[in-house]
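>> Question from a student workshop board

For tomorrow's exercise we were told to take the sequence and the ligand below, predict the bound structure, and bring the output to class. My setup keeps failing. Could a helper post the expected result so I can at least see what it should look like? The ligand is tyrosine.
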Amino acid sequence: MRPADLKTTRRAVRFDRERLSIEDIVAIAHGEAGATLSDDPAFRAMIARGADFLDRLLREDGNIYGVTTGYGDSCTVNVPAELVAELPHHLYTYHGCGLGEYFDPAQTRAILAARLASLSKGYSGVSVELLLQITRLLDAGLLPLIPSEGSVGASGDLTPLSYLAAVLCGEREVWRDGAQVPAAEALRAAGIAPLRLRPKEGLAIMNGTAVMTALACLAFDRAEYLTRLCTRITAMASYTLDGNAHHFDEVLFAAKPHAGMQNVAAWLRSDLPTEQWERNGKRLQDRYSIRCAPHVIGVLADALPFFRSSIENELNSANDNPLIDPDGERVLHGGHFYGGHIAFAMDGMKNAVANLADLLDRQMALMVDSRYNHGLPANLSGASGPRAAINHGLKALQISVSAWTAEALKLTMPASVFSRSTECHNQDKVSMGTIAARDCLRVLQLTEQVVAALLITVRQGVWLRQQANPELPPHAAITRMLAELGADVAPVQEDRRLEPDLRLLIERIRAKAWELYV
Ligand SMILES: N[C@@H](Cc1ccc(O)cc1)C(=O)O
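>> Workshop helper replied:
Here is what the output should look like for this input. Compare the format with yours to find the bug.
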């Protein structure tokens, strides 16, 4: 369903000074919620006070950074009064040098929502009209085409956000129903008058962390689901390998108090048949990719609450410069456009997520190898009799998984350590948070591909194990998951092209199709 079709039923996220959550931004991104600006008169008056104070200051003092001066290192250049009105338009114009792929519509909606969140805090000296204009774009489904490359993530996401500023003013291009249209034409057709920016409004739109923060919200949402799905896959891999379910014992895990990791172990316990306790069972110690799975998945599970607080604090911050204190009537010069917290969260998240890909890649290596899979066919081939000779089962799928895993791991190099001095040494330390966030999304995409392949593998593996050892106790969660996967993916009996199965499973992963551990 397209977002526009959902208009009548979907909820609205209200923008005011209240704290917003990652889920609010994700809902707007996916078109499940709209964005409305609070019409509370006190809120609107507070916003207007900032803009009025700036107007007064301009009249009385005549000298404000970024209003009557050049930007950044050019702050020593004074702008004559008759050119002040043109200055914000120059800001977005000369920043129109982004390149690379355009952000997709969901990412773009998240970016608009994140910028609206920051400006709604009331410290940016912008007009209510500007905030409303952002909601109008979201409402009408007119999404700026924003190139994804060209931000150092410390003077804010200046260059990508210049594309939002330009579109608000009826310039550059938007997506409309999936097509690229000139913004001027799209705004006219939607009955939206282009803005003429007030003196500080160009800076307020562009000088902030909205792009990286929006991407971080989307990344968080995907990473959280993967902790659950990788746990379920681990349970099915353990079952496939006829492994030792007691590796996830409650007393064992109580001895190591990482709460997220303990949770993963508890999920595994709930998935696996652990009724019978054997002192020296048949499989004393499984390999690490099974035995230590809670310790690998748990790193991400334990980091998520920290990532959430960093991302939501950034989302709920006034992150431009200078800030305008409407009540104290002061102009506060600082560096809140510096995205170090998001950079760290994204660099950390991509590392922890790539480790999931690596974990699953190792689990697959055990399952397809008849030297390690405890009695199942090589490559988990489902063919029998003379035809077994020409069937290669999941052989190529494993090779693809190795490639996707390698590519994910390759992208884990932290972006934040590549800070470099730029803009005539005014921006001499920068966060690279937007690059970190883009890396993280790519690592998530590659890891989801690995997850899709592992879903095929465990679906095949559990099915073969049930045939090989019919006496094994079936377990509710695994049986249910096998049935759900079975509805999408047939067992591989004769070799077939698995790409369609993979693509379908990736869709299911992105839609969080399976209810896991609720
Ligand atoms: N981020 C800078 C402002 C800036 C804006 C545009 C630039 O091109 C450069 C710098 C500051 O607030 O100090």
